[in-house]
TrEMBL record:
The chain crosses the membrane at residues 6-26. The lineage of its organism: Bacteria, Pseudomonadati, Pseudomonadota, Gammaproteobacteria, SAR86 cluster. It comes from the Bacteria. Gene3D superfamilies: Rhodanese-like domain (3.40.250.10). This is Rhodanese-like domain-containing protein.
Length: 138
């Protein structure tokens, strides 16, 4: 370990670009797909800004329980259902999946469709449930 530290110090001109690249890549990955929001942020955006909540889970998972007034657009068939999204490209959109990982790809798709206010629920529906927040069935 000491030799590695000495290498980093002695060859700082190699080490610095490497660390800078890692930091920039990490920041890019964290922001990919949209803003990461908490459950409290989701509630606030829905109540104050009439945000659209899009549930990306399968229809079966959605029917077991989902956030009130959310729209089901399964991740694997998103293109088929994308016409159901508001034409107002400034209106907040909140993407919800099982654990928050699938939403990034759909967020990038929405950015390419020129939607400006894309948000992703951190931890997905699993975190929503762990926080004791309600799910509805229809």
């Amino acid at each position: 370990m000491i030799e590695f530290n000495l290498f980093l110090i002695d060859y700082w001109y190699f080490s610095f670009p490497l660390f800078l690249t890692i930091i920039l890549w990490s920041r890019h990955e964290m922001n990919r797909g949209g803003n990461k929001i908490t459950s409290a942020d989701l509630t606030r955006l829905v109540n104050k800004n009439s945000a659209t909540v899009i549930d990306l889970r399968s229809a079966d998972e959605f029917n077991i329980g989902h956030i009130a007034n959310s729209i089901n657009m399964p991740h694997d068939a998103f293109e088929k259902y994308s016409h159901r999204i508001s034409s107002d490209r400034q209106k907040p959109i909140i993407l919800v999946c099982s654990m928050g990982s699938q939403s990034k790809n759909i967020g990038e798709t929405l950015k390419n469709m020129e939607y400006a206010n894309i948000n992703i629920l951190q931890g997905g529906i699993l975190t929503w449930q762990q926080e004791g927040l309600p799910l509805v069935t229809e």
